[in-house]
Each structure stands twice: as structure tokens, then as C-alpha cells.
Amino acid sequence: MRLAIFPDGGVARLRIHGEVVPRWSRLRALGGPIDLAALEHGAVVETCSDMFFGSRNNLIKPGQSRSMADGWETRRRRGPGNDWAIVRLAAAGTIERLAIDTTHFRGNAPGRCTVEGIDAPGNAPGSAEQLTGWRLLLASPLQPHTRQVFDDELRRIGAVTHLKLSVFPDGGVARLRAYGELAGDPGAGLARLNALSADEARAALRRCCGAARWVEAMAAARPFEDAAALLRIAERTWWSLDEAAHREAFAAHPRIGETRAPAGGDTAWSAGEQRAAQSADAELLAELAEANRAYVERHGFLFIVCATGRSAASMLADLRARLPSSLADELRTAAEEQIKIARLRLGKLLGELA
Q1: Are residues 167 and 93 in the same domain?
Q2: Which of 73, 157, 295, 337 sits 20 to 30 Å CA-CA off 136?
């Protein structure tokens, strides 16, 4: 990043927001399992029930906790229920060892905990609370002011992308570590993509984005150095395209509430992305269909939204909010949603190729 100011002057702060993308080859070279729940590796605590005394992302910060304020602590419960936090792992993997650290929490540590996992690749960031189908890895009492390590006690449930730590009834946890093995070598999928023939690469990339010029440019840009380079080049290529190419990509998607993609799209991935919406009742799906019709009539292309993990009701609300927008604004918003979809699909593609 390079910041230029003209002609001179003072700048108080510069913030660069993004996603951590680790070099898995370096981490593997260290040997042993990798902490898939580490903040520095790209994991994030997406949501939690409460963080009155301490931020939820303190749970997975580097290093040891320095005080209670450096951990995750909830307020005292006076009624039923319990507190919880959901971690999106840095990558899908099988968990071999858990470390749950209550250091500094003496009279206010949880009495017990459970840790559950789920394999939900492509789940949209911010929608983890809606996930269903959690499977238990661990249920155990917890000791105050102690770093507790669990390995033999863990249930082996296969690869997971998210962990849910539940504490009963409440209390403070300094750190959570989840050591495991990557489910699939991200480098293996990338190596396979780089090695495909030109026709095979175009067919694979077309599943991620229906714009022919994007597909051609991405196929020609191989070999990609790593997954981060793949995503970076995908975005740069997408924003270099004109409106006609963007509209071509939009046309490859089914309408929200439908699952069968047009000839240029990918029906299987579209169905998976809209899985949550398909549980809506007939009345809501009819409202979606009518709103989609009105949107196409106004803007000339179908409503594009990153549907992964989204409910039909939330997407209908977005559709209605965006319907009055100007064409220029809506083309930009739709393009932003399309590249979100492409990024998620590129991740899926690497997973399938690995």
C-alpha cells in the first residue's frame, strides 16, 4: 500500500481492512497440527451471545492472556440459558486437540463447556448464528485459572469450518485454541487448477463467474502463485470489465427463490447457495418472485445478491430496499455482490480440485 498526499500535510491514522490469508506451506513446514482458530491465521469469532466485559475476538488473540480484560467475559446471568461464541476457522480441518484457557478467571470461570463443530463451506460471513446441524466434539467441566488441554476426550467428527464454544451458565474464557490438520491442501487445489488444460480451466472458472471475458482472462493468468493471488487477480479482472460483461455474469444466475441456473451458470452451486431460502413458505416465495419481476422490469437485469446463508425474508427485504435505486447505483451494487459470489465459488473450486 502506498499513501500519497498533495502537496504535504498530516494524516492521523491509516486503516487497511481486509482478510488474513496465511501461507499454509510455511505453517506446514513448522510440523505438527496448526491452530485453525488463531486470529493471526485468518480465523474470526463471528458472533457471540454477549461480550459485556471483554471482546469476543480476545478468545483467539495471539499469546497468553494478560488479564481478565484480555479475555472473553460475559455478564452474570440471572435467568435460564447459557453463553456461547462461534468461531469461523481459518480453513476447514479436523480438530485433534483443543486448549481452553481460563487463566485470570478465578471466581468467575464457567462451570462447564461444550464445543461443537460444523462443516459449512461457503457460509456467508456474519450468518453463522443461523447455522444448524452442529455436532459435539467435547463436553467437559472447566477449572478456574487453568489452561486445560483436551485430545483423547475429543469426538472425531471429520472436517469442520466453524466451532461453537458454549459455557454454562456464563463466565470468562481467556483463550481458545483448536489444533488440527487441514481438510484439503489449498495448494493442491491451486496446483490442479494451474495444471488444467485451457478448455478445462475455462470450464472450471465459468462455474465461478459467467462473464466470458473474465473466464478467458483468469485462464490466461495462470499459474497463480497462491490462493491470495488467485482472489486478488479475480477481483482486479472483474473490476476491469465493462457493463456488458457484468450483465453477462448476472444472467448466469437463477432468480432468488429459484435454484435452476441458466445454461451459463452452475445449478449445483446455486442450489447450495440458496438452500436457506428454499425453506421459505409458498407465500414468501411468491412475494420474492413478484419482487424479482418488478426489479427486472425496472433495471433490466435480475436481482443479484450473495445468497449463501441468507434467509428468503432477509433477501426480500434487500430486494425491496434496492428496487428504487438508480440504474448506476444498482449496477455497482450488483457487481459488488457478484464478486463476493465469485470469491466464495473460487474457494469451493479449490476445495473440489484438492
Answers
A1: yes
A2: 73
